[in-house]
Structure formats: C-alpha cells, structure tokens
Design a protein that fits this description.
Number of helices: 9
Radius of gyration: 45 Å
Shape: globular
Number of strands: 2
Low-confidence stretches: 1-30, 41-52, 62-95
Distance between the termini: 134 Å
Largest sheet: 2 strands, antiparallel
Length: 395
C-alpha cells in the first residue's frame, strides 16, 4: 500500500486509508470533495472494517456529536444518524432541560378556559320508596281476610296463621339457599311449623314447646339423608327458622284461645300496624337523625318517637274499649313495649336481609315485598302482647 494515501495523525485533515472514512476522533466529519464521483454509499459498516455493529439511538433534542467522535457513521454519509446521549441506560448523565419546540412544529393548544359552574339541580321531592297505591290495596285486602276469619270462625284464622307461616318459611329458606348456599330442609319445617301453630291453639304453651322440639328433631334427622358437608350450618339454619317463624307465630294462636281472644288478636294487630304507620309517617316527614344506619338507613329516631306515640294512643283506646277488664294505663305500657318490639323485629329482619344482600324477602305482595316483610314486626311482638295481656287481665 502506498503510504502517500495516509496523512499525519497530528494534521487536522488526517484521513485513514482511502475508502474507509475519517479516523476515530480526528478531523472534520465530512469532506465534500471526497465523495465526488463515487458510487452511492453502501452499508454504514463494511464487513472488512469492523466485526460487529449496533444501531445508534436517534435523540433529536440533544446536540449532535461530530462524526468521528464516537461509534457513528464511518463512511461520511451526510444522511446517516449521529450519536447523541449515553449509549447504555446505566451511564451517568447530567440532568437535561426540557427541549425547545422544533421550528415548524404545530403550536400547542391554549389552555382550556375554566368550566363555568352549572346551576344546581332542583331538589327532588322526598319519595316513599314503594308503590303506595299497591301497598294500601294489598293491606286492605289482607285486613279484610284477617278480620273475616277472626270473627266468623276462629279455626279458619288458625289456618290463615298456618298458611302465612309456611309461606314465610319457604321465602326464608329459599333466600338462604340462593344467597348463602344454606339448605335448611323445608319439608320438616313446613309440616312442623303448621303443627306448631295448631298445637299452640289446642294445647297452649305446653303444646307449642313440644311441637317446637319435635320440629327441631325432624330437621336434624331429615338432613341426614344428604351428604355430611354443610350439615351443621344447614340444621342450625333450620332450627333458627323453626323458632323465628312458626314458634313466635304460635303466640297469636294462643291469644285466640281466651274468651275475648278475637279482640286480643285484633288489639295486637292494631298496635303493631299503628306503630309501623307512626314510625313511617313521622320518620318520612321529620326524620333527620338515623336510628341504626348500618342496619336500616331509612329508620330515624324521630320515626321511633312517632311509633311510640301512635302505639301508646292506640293502646289506651284498645285496652279501654276492646279488651275485657283493661285500663288506660295498661294501654300506655302496652303501646311502649309494642313499639319497641316491633322496631327491634323490623331491625332484626333488616339485619338478615343485609347479610343476604337483598332488599325484600319475596315479591308475593305488591308494594310490600314478601310475607316475611310483613311478619317481621308481628312475630317478635306476638309473645310480648300475649304475656302482657295475661299479666294484665288473665288468660
């Protein structure tokens, strides 16, 4: 090779061997006279020049590094990319200021004007939450059936209680199965529940307790016909259902056995319905302070005051005019305790529905929900009224 094709390394225009471009780190990046008359440049790296290549990142916002100042293009092609910034991620760099916008770039949109405040929506009228027309119609229909059976033939009213108990058990066990996978046996519960009501009417409290024990035993035995998985929770739910629905309802049948039993049952129904109505009316109109927000957000302390007031007034009237040998002050006590037991019963069923994640136990009664949604305050109130009437005027 002719040594005249080489320059002196210290000279500014020092070039490497002909055709190989500028030496690393020396001289200008490109000599226009060098490429005149040459064929278009081939690949950036020739196989004989280097053994390994790697693509260089293009970072337009960094200052260009002159060719020969790094592992850039070695054939002097002016269209080749130039190296800028660190090659590897772990190399140390100094913080960079945000890049200036490129000439000719689209202008950035101006910041949007602040949104104008929208006028507040008109305050909506307080809603009752249910179809009042359907609720009142269904309530009147049930009242006619109950009153007719209560004062015409007492045995028919006992049948009405038994039917309500069976339907209530069906709703409760169905919801337990749907929402929690708890399979409380319905057949022994329905048969034992109806028998419990009849036994309470025929044999009094002793008959009710015996029927309750036999129903619990039937639940335990019936569940043995299925696999043992879940046996404990199923029979526990079954015994609870037997106590909660038919056993508490038996006290209504026991009230009926007195000489003025029909009037006692009517007093029990009136006080419970009036208590619920007072709580609803006062709470809906004046309620502001929640009574038990985590259990029943709709109940308020003002509603409880309304329930007690309405029930006390109804108790005075019922004990004076409906129950034999009753007095007004007994009606006051009866009204207070009925309002308390009805409210607790309502909260108790609300707790069950919260745990199950449902609003109503059923859809059988339009405007009310299911049978259990009407029995929730009646069931725990029945033993309270039965006991107070026995203490006040005897059995």
């Amino acid at each position: 090779m002719n040594d005249s094709s080489w320059g002196t390394p210290s000279e500014p225009g020092y070039w490497g061997p002909a055709g190989q471009g500028p030496a690393y780190g020396q001289g200008p990046s490109y000599d226009p006279s060098y490429d005149q008359g040459r064929a278009p440049a081939g690949p950036a790296y020739e196989r004989h020049a280097v053994e390994e290549t790697r693509p260089m990142p293009i970072v337009p916002d960094m200052p260009d590094v002159p060719a020969g100042g790094g592992d850039g293009d070695q054939d002097g092609d002016p269209g080749a990319a130039r190296l800028s910034g660190p090659l590897f991620r772990d190399e140390t760099t100094t913080p960079q200021t945000p890049p200036e916008p490129l000439s000719g770039a689209a202008p950035q949109p101006a910041p949007a004007a602040p949104a104008q405040p929208q006028p507040s929506a008109p305050k909506q009228k307080k809603s009752a939450g249910r179809d009042l027309g359907s609720a009142i119609g269904v309530g009147v229909g049930l009242g006619v059936v109950i009153i007719a059976s209560l004062f015409i033939v007492k045995a028919v009213f006992v049948g009405v209680i038994a039917v309500a108990v069976v339907v209530g058990l069906w709703e409760l066990t169905s919801r337990l199965d749907e929402r929690k996978g708890i399979k409380a046996p319905l057949v022994p519960l329905a048969v034992g529940g109806a028998a419990m009501v009849v036994a309470g009417y025929v044999r009094g409290a002793e008959g009710a307790w015996v029927a309750m024990a036999l129903t619990a035993l039937a639940v335990l035995v019936w569940r043995m016909t299925e696999p043992p998985e879940g046996y404990l929770k199923d029979v526990t739910a079954g015994v609870f259902a037997a106590f909660y629905v038919p056993f508490l309802a038996t006290f209504v049948a026991m009230m009926l056995t007195a000489d003025d039993g029909a009037w006692r049952v009517l007093t029990f129904l009136i006080l419970t319905v009036v208590s619920d109505t007072g709580a609803y009316a006062i709470g809906w109109r004046f309620g502001k302070h929640k009574l038990a927000p985590r259990i029943s957000p709709g109940k308020t302390r003002e509603g409880l005051v309304g329930a007690v007031t309405f029930a006390m007034a109804a108790g005075v009237l019922c004990m004076e005019f409906l129950v034999d040998d009753g007095t007004w002050w007994q009606g006051l006590i009866l009204g207070v305790l009925v309002a308390a037991s009805a409210t607790l019963g309502d909260l108790g069923e609300s707790m069950i529905k919260r745990d199950l994640g449902i609003k109503d136990m059923g859809t059988l009664l339009p405007g009310h929900g299911g049978i259990m949604d009407r029995l929730d305050s009646l069931l725990p109130t029945a033993p309270v009224v039965w006991l107070l009437l026995v203490l006040f005027v005897g059995s």
